[in-house]
Amino acid sequence: MDEFLIRTVRPADAEAWRQLRTAHWPDGAEDHAREIAAFFARTLAEPQAVFLAEAQNEAVAVMELSIRANLPSLDGVNVGYVEGFYIVPKFRGQGLARQLLRRAQEWAREQGCPKFASDRAGRVIVDPNYRLK
Predict the structure, then answer these.
(1) Is there a contact between 100 and 61 (Cβ–Cβ < 8 Å)?
(2) Edge-to-edge strand order for the sheet containing 123-126?
(3) What's the rounded Cα separation, in Å, for the pair 30 and 73?
(4) What gap in Å lies between CA 7 and CA 51, rounded to an integer?
(5) Angle of helix 29-40 relative to helix 14-24, nearest 10 degrees?
(6) Mean pLDDT for the chain overall
(7) For residues 58 and 89, what is the distance between their CA atoms, to the nearest angstrom?
């Protein structure tokens, strides 16, 4: 099992982020570089935070987060929300997803979000164990 460093994405990570994003969303590949540049310029509405995971100085995962207040059944409630999440296949099954989700929940708590959610196959899944501390 590799040791993972999870940290906030930096401008020097733009190309690694673009590659991970393209692996996750190949259909939008032509827009990724522009959107990443806009994120660092702070002109992009979402994602609001991005975490990168490294193993052996190599970017192996990315998680994009936002705050949503318009989710069905949670309308008007600020929800920390996973917009995108990708792990390089050879690093899956090693506990990295759990580590990234914990860091994402910490971020949501820091933002004052009383709920945390993501979607899977078009269904919004609210974490029932998430608590604002």
Answers:
(1) yes
(2) 5-8, 49-55, 58-68, 79-87, 115-120, 123-126
(3) 34
(4) 5
(5) 140
(6) 91
(7) 14
Tokens for 83, please give them.
């917009």
State how far Cα 101 lies from the chain centre: 8
Place of tokens 């008007």: 76
- Between CA 116 and CA 94 the distance in angstroms is 23
pLDDT digits (tens, 9 = 90+) for 23-42: 999 998 999 999 999 999 99
Q: How far apart are CA 23 and CA 53, in angstroms?
A: 15
Give the mean pLDDT of 92-100.
94
Distance, CA of 26 to CA of 37 (rounded, Å): 18
For residue 127, the Cα-to-chain-centroid distance in whole angstroms is 15
Structural domains in the chain, sorted by start:
5-126 (3.40.630.30)
Give me the residues paired with residue 86 across strands. 62
Kind plus residue range of the DSSP H or E element containing 82: strand 79-87
* Of the candidate ranges 2-6, 25-29, 59-63, 101-105, the one whose mean pLDDT is the lowest: 2-6
